[in-house]
Amino acid sequence: MLLFMRKKSKYILGILAGLLLMSLQPVWAAGPPEPSIFNNPLALILIILMILLLIIIAILANILIGAADVKLKKRKQTTSPVLRNSLLLVFLLISGSSLFAQGTVTETTKAVVKSIGGMQASTFYIMAFVIFIELAIIMAMLINIKFLLKSEKEKVILATEPQAEKLKKEKLSWWDRFNKLKPVSEEAELDLGHEYDGIRELNNRLPPWWLYGFYLTIIFAGIYLWRFHVAHTAPSSKEEFENSIAKADLKIQKYLLAKGDAVDENTVILLKSPDDIAAGKLIFSKSCVTCHTETGAGNIGPNLTDNFWLNGNDIKNVFKTIRYGINAMPQWQNTYSNKQIAQVASYVKSLLGTNPPNPKAPQGVEMKEAAVPAKEAVDSLNAKPVTDSLKAKSS
Amino acid sequence: MQVEKFYYDNKIVKAFGYATIIFGIVGMLVGLWVAIQIYYPAASLNFAATTFGRLRPLHTNAIIFAFVGNASFAGIYYSLQRLCKARMFSDKLSWIHFWGWQLIIVAAAITLPLGLTNGAEYAELIWPIDISIALVWVLFGINMFGTIIKRREKHLYVAIWFYIATWVTVALLHIVRSIELPYSLTGSYSWFAGVQDALVQWWYGHNAVAFFLTTPVLGLMYYFLPKAANRPVYSYRLSIIHFWALIFIYIWAGPHHLLYTALPDWAQSLGVVFSIMLIAPSWGGMLNGLFTLRGAWDKVREDPVLKFMVVAITCYGMSTFEGPMMSLKSVNAISHFTDWTIAHVHIGGLGWNGFLAFAILYYMIPKMWGTDLYSKKLATNHFWLGTIGIIIYAVPLYWAGFEQSIMWKQFTPEGQLKFDFMQTVNNIKPMYWARSVGGTLYLIGALIMVYNLYKTIVKGKFIPNEAAEAPPLVKETSKKKEFWHRVIERKPLTMLLLSLILVSIGGLVQMIPTFLVKSNIPTIASVKPYTPLELQGRDIYVREGCYTCHSQMVRPFRDEVKRYGEYSKAGEFVYDHPFQWGSKRTGPDLARVGGKYPDSWHYNHMYEPSSMTDGSLMPRYIWLLDDKIDTSSTPAKIRAMRTLGVPYPEGYDKIANRDLVYQADSIAANLKKDKIETASNKEIIAMIAYLQRLGKDIKAESQKPLAENNK
């Protein structure tokens, strides 16, 4: 009876530990915009792994206690010191495992800055440590079980015939125990007497891990629905999207500020360095040639080498046309950075007067190239005003 | 008690068995063909009927309804008679069922390449075929229940529970999904639009997998596995729990195909949690199968039938665990629209369905011909070729799916997308190639089976009517109290009714609010019905099966909004009969392609996709440049749309063609400016009109915040 109670309590402990971990979600997600740890696939996997290992430990512990108990009964007269030791060890391990489970619960709530795989470094290390400990416990238990079974085997050889048979019945592998399988030899007891076209049916118990796993998924479902639709501690799809945009924008701003690459249509300057022109040419040959042809003579899009322009011919207007698109011209702001757009705009400007073969008929208004003072065409994108305005914005 | 003598009908099993083999090979060949087209577009032969968009539906329909369908029928006709200790209720009905089903398949094989389709995945067949399916299905039901009612066995075995649930649920799914309004002998529009159509579609699509590819096959497993292993079924208790839990929970999980779409969040969450709860009931079937083999594992080493079954059940266990994992939003964000999904379904298709079908063929055919299998060695070779084929098929696709998705989501530090779409495609081309190698191995294995079975048949002598005897069923007189479930097992109609109630709940809870509660689909004032030309273009889009490679659903992710534009809203799809969100992005999303390229770009792209996009995998659609728009259908289409609630003005059907011609002329004139001469009555014009309309209705509003975002 006592053994039975102990068994049950182990399962309950395992589930409780799992529950505790899961019910912590709202705590983690206390600040709504901050995504909860449960959105991190790595964290989820680690937690599931921790729970699974915990369940395995509980089951193994049962097997171990059960096996030890059987032995204990058999040797009631002569108490074996080895056995007492192993029993002690089992209890130590079990209490240890539940302690560790609770350890996780308290430790993981701490906030530390460093991150691994998108989760806080300390959380990751604690989780990894718990898993390591759990694995170690499982190893220790397996070794113990093997030891117990081995001594059992020796007994069988020593024992008399009828006794040996009885012992054989008790002997079950960890796998059979894990699934609550009865030995094949006892199958007749499970036979329900159903028979369909020669097919008989047994009535084996449900594998405990299956049943408790099923319960766990139902609990998961309840918590999930509660978090997303009652407590609103988990973000909706829309909130998740808005958070990700806000986070990314901040990161980009910081990056551009640090690099000094901030440029837009108000500050763009014609670039003349061979490197920039070459970079512009590369982009042109990738994205522009289908409509403007390799030489810029025009096909679907207008000729870029003549003096006729549909949307303005100065660098700022060309930049704008490329960045935002206009009429049939697609926008490129989502494909290329502003620096890249400045490069390709400068390349386009460099095509003027190259007189390629098969030019498209002129479109738009004739515009004479404004004389560009040599000083202004500095090879630089580090336009100070923009950087300043960004600084002001982010501070 | 007097023992009655009777005969099992083996002829009908033989017929369904042959059909399984023939359509299995055909379906796999088509599959291989489309797999090659994906990396070698010229394999479409530049011929309309053999392009990917038309052949992929043929492949999926052939495998699901012709190969697995016929295999299930063969197994059901074989096992049901033996489990009921009775010949089939009516030989005539059996044969009407058989020929009716084969005619449906042939009709599908003709109409799908012709481009006659409803444009809904796995429900592509046009309305006259839909009606024939319903009729044949009802006849099959009458035959099955007739047999069950005249049975000589008091209780129904678990396999039959699965057959009953299959029958009633497939009937329900098929009828609801096929509610459509015909506008011609071959054309119809789905009764539902946009979000609602999507919900109905994936309620249907997901449960077609559940109740056409899973429950009947589980039933077959419950009969053929214990027979082949000669072992008792592991746990009756597990059978009961996993059966009822499975059919109840499965129905709810459909929305996991629509995570992060415009479907309301609450419906998505139901899809997630019911998918997770589905793990244990699904695994119940796997456990009952594998544990039944306890004490028979030595036989598995010898017997190819058991070998196939073990791998089949293992694949079932893997894909029913993977499926719920893919239903978690964070995983789905990566896996959806990629080849990951394709790999996932093929673990189920090749592993679970294919291998179990092979197993029962290897079991039944020697039995019905009163002989042994011609060669165990060949069967073992088939087993290994098939297994290796599955691995070589699936692993590269998992890789491709994961890699492509991760590439889609990468940004440069400046906040630009790191890879354009074509770069991500180029990267996974080798994986597509490897996948077709895996498929070839699997097909070779199947051909070896054909040879082996042929030799077996030649060796044996067919037993058309197998003699059996059993005492008749006497009416229960004793009042002995029975286990409650044993009582249900005596009452097939109660079982039918209970199944129907259980499978109805999930669908009703999800559909009724989505259809009736306004806030689920907020209306957008700027969204207007399609013009007649755009409508014609849309029907061409559906006809060509563009949805097999292109989605029309921008999910609310930073990368997708950057790449495709503002994420899709529920209100944008209210005039979409049927919806065309798609489920795979072999090509880019098209939800907001309108206005992205000039008309002439589309013209050139349809003529030769690689001229506009270097390395494109899209086939050429040259016939669109020659074929004329069928304007005679416009009035009927407009009338049908009006009936469905699309607000065209009264009498618009009579003048619609005038508007159509006007819009077509302006597109032709626009093309002329770019040196493209074409008549305005060609299909390409309608196609361009439709593509240029896509996603534009709310574009004006959405561009502003985007531009600001980028500063």
Task: Summarize the structure in words.
The complex is a heterodimer of chains A (395) and B (711). In chain A, 62% of the residues lie in helices and 5% in strands. By secondary structure, chain A is mainly alpha-helical. In chain A, helix 1 packs parallel to helix 4 and helix 3 runs antiparallel to helix 4. Chain B contains 27 helices and 4 strands. In chain B, strands 1-4 form a two-stranded antiparallel ribbon. In chain B, strands 2-3 form a two-stranded antiparallel ribbon. Chain B is globular. At the A-B interface, strand 3, strand 4, helix 9, helix 10 and helix 14 of A face helix 2, helix 7, helix 8, helix 9 and helix 10 of B.
Attribute tags:
heterodimer; A: 395 residues; mainly alpha; 2 domains; two-stranded antiparallel ribbon; 15 helices; 6 strands; 62% helix; elongated; B: 711 residues; Cytochrome C Oxidase, Chain A; Cytochrome Bc1 Complex, Chain D, domain 2; two-stranded antiparallel sheet; 27 helices; 4 strands; disordered C terminus
Structural class of chain A: mainly alpha
Radius of gyration of chain B equals 26 Å
Mean pLDDT of chain B: 93
Task: Give the CA-CA distance, first to last residue of chain B.
Answer: 91 Å
Helix content of chain A: 55-70%
User: So what's the overall shape of chain A?
Assistant: elongated
- Quaternary state, please? heterodimer
Main beta sheet of chain B: 2 strands, antiparallel
**Biggest sheet character of chain A:** 2 strands, antiparallel
Strand order of the largest sheet of chain A: 1-2
End-to-end separation of chain A in angstroms reads 69 Å
If helices are DSSP runs of H or I spanning 4 or more residues, what is the number of helices of chain A?
Answer: 15
Q: State the CATH architecture of the largest domain in chain B.
A: Up-down Bundle
**SSE pattern of chain A, N- to C-terminal:** HHHHEEHHHHEEHHHHEHHEH
Count of extended strands of chain B: 4
Shape of chain B: globular
Strand order of the largest sheet of chain B: 1-4
Mean pLDDT of chain A: 73
Helix content of chain B: 55-70%
